Automatic annotation (TrEMBL):
Superkingdom assignment: Eukaryota
Transmembrane segments: 14-30
GO biological process: regulation of cell cycle
PANTHER family xrefs: GROWTH ARREST-SPECIFIC 1B, GROWTH ARREST-SPECIFIC PROTEIN 1
Species in which this protein is naturally found: Anguilla anguilla (European freshwater eel)
Keywords: Membrane, Transmembrane, Transmembrane helix
InterPro entries named in the record: GAS1
Name this protein carries in UniProt: Uncharacterized protein
Transmembrane helix as UniProt keyword: yes
Length: 72
């Protein structure tokens, strides 16, 4: 019986850190795609801005990436 009580306490000690890790991992994984899309948009806009024939595509990049860059 004492062994069982000790096992339960050990499991309780492990549940809190594991639960916190799951919550933190979920938050990070949800937040990541937005940063990735924002970086891709900035890279596309900066690359296009340096090319002389890219005026039409530059306007499209700005229109498509506007909400991502503004955080909407």
């Amino acid at each position: 019986m004492a062994r069982f009580a000790g096992s339960v306490q050990c499991i309780r000690r492990l549940v809190w850190p594991f639960g916190c890790m799951l919550v933190l991992f979920g938050y990070v994984s949800i937040a990541s795609p937005s940063r990735g899309r924002r970086l891709i948009c900035w890279q596309a806009i900066m690359k296009c801005q340096g090319e002389p024939e890219c005026y039409y595509a530059y306007g499209q990049y700005l229109h498509a990436c506007g909400p991502v860059i503004n955080g909407e």
